[in-house]
Structure formats: C-alpha cells, structure tokens
Amino acid sequence: MASTSSQDKARQLIKKAQTEHKDLVGACISAVVAALVMAYVISVAKPGVVQLVLAILAVGAIVWAYMLVARSPADAAWKAATVVGAAVISVLLLLGVSTLLS
Asked: Can you give the pTM of this predicted structure?
C-alpha cells in the first residue's frame, strides 16, 4: 500500500517537472550555456568579431533565461529559487572554467 502511494507521488512530481517546471529547467540550462560561452570569451587574449558575437549570444541566453522564468506558471518561490540557483551555479561555473582556460 505504501509502495503504491509513493509511486503515485513520484509520478505526480515527474508530471509536474515536465509541465509546470519545464521553463525553470530551461532557464537553468540557458544560464549554464551563457556562463560557458562567457568563460570562453573572457579567456581569449585578443578578442575579435567572433568573440563579440558569442558575447552577444551569451547575453541573449541570459535574457532568455529570465523570460523563461517569467512565463513559467510555477509559484513565486520556485521562480526566485531558480533565479538565485542559476546565478550561483553560473558564477561558480564561470570562475571554474575561466581558471581552467587561463
């Protein structure tokens, strides 16, 4: 009996992640991609046009992440946690990759 209840709860959480929190996951992925691209752009000794385009794309990914959070039907607490979590992960990733590339 408890097994069925926990399986139902797990199914509900998976369904919620696939519907309501889909945009929040996309925002985290977008923030990580932006951090990786910016880490590369920062590490280049003589930036050129390609790095400029990549930097603009990274900024676009950050804006896209915020737009995904804004359009998500999730609660405000989930949205706030996503923005803070994505920012922390992105900064740590940016610092780590920048250190490795330099």
From this structure: 0.78
